[in-house]
Amino acid sequence: MRAAPSPVQLRQRAGLVVTVVGLAWLVLAARLIQLQAWQQVELTGRAERQREFVEDVIPRPGDIYDAHGRLLATTITASSLYVAPLELLDDRNVADRLADALNLDADELSQRIARHAEKHFLWVRRRLSDEETRRIRALKLPPHGWGLREEFQRIYPQGPLAAQVLGLRDIDGVGRGGIEESCDAELRGTPGQRRLTRDSRGRVIDVVDDPEHLAHPGRDVVLTLDAVIQLFTERALDELVAEAQPEACCAIVLDPNSGDVLGMASRPSFDPNHADKVPDAAWKNRAIADIYEPGSTFKPMIVAYGLDRRMLDVSDHYDCEWGRYRMGRRLLHDHHPYGTLSLAEVLVKSSNIGMAKVGERLTNAGLHSAAALFGFGRRTGIELPGELPGILRP
Fold this sequence. Notes:
The protein contains 14 helices and 16 strands. The chain is α+β, with helices and mostly antiparallel strands. Strands 2, 3, 4, 5 and 10 form a 5-stranded mixed sheet that branches. Strands 1-8-9 form a 3-stranded antiparallel sheet. A two-stranded antiparallel sheet has the order 6-7. β2 and β3 form a beta hairpin. The termini are far apart.
């Protein structure tokens, strides 16, 4: 048998216990003093940041109109579906039902959620249709782990009309191509801010707009295009495509008095309402991004330059050699054989031989000067991205 502890041993053991407990209380008290005195400001700020956060408020983009106020591009609101993976790890049923309502692969959605398990937010599908939104709301799911957020959606009421001129806004609201890109700064507006408060589970319980950082909607843009002229222009191109089956074609209609573009179309084209179905070749606005030889449309400018410089005279006549004229190593022809033509008749009949003799009189330097003065070889400055300057050689 072990002997009972003596009174001295009992007092020593009690003293040891009291000392250990006392030291523990001293350490705890010191830690509390540290938290309350020296780290109060830091911890308070951390708690505020976890409880409140600032979110950007996206402004509504401006609309685009034709010259007569017809709406070409506008913005509506649409619901987008998101989930909180951190809250759905133990609730496969919610993910399955959401996938079923949107005709998604349930296993694939679950795998996506699992890959982002530490996140509080993950998009499932953005810009739902009205029918999809109705189906989601009809599920009557638990309020945690998922939600619908209102977003802006760009739509084009005229469908594919003037698609390359307008461009489109992508799913994040960024202008891509056409006026949407070149006038993006005016159209997109100024973002604002708002402060959101969360509870201990991360759910938003209060939203307050920041009065010093309010969102300002984008400005509307009015084009020189006339939607009716644009429609007829595109119909003419479609008829040409059906008849001649070209790889591509384009057309421009200008106001001869002001130079305003009344119609501009290119084929192939696309519907900006369905950006996911646009073939690569359709993005290019060939009216400004392809380089062409001007052909016979160039002849009046050369004659105008020559008359202005007094190198030509309206009374001039040219022997058109009855349709055959050797110029250096080249043998030139006219569509019809002509004899002697006045300067005006050379233009009216578009005689290649007559114009060749005009060019010989002006010399290469004069022809280059004429082309440069009329703007060939440089951009027009039209408010559309992707314009090429063309090629002009001496």
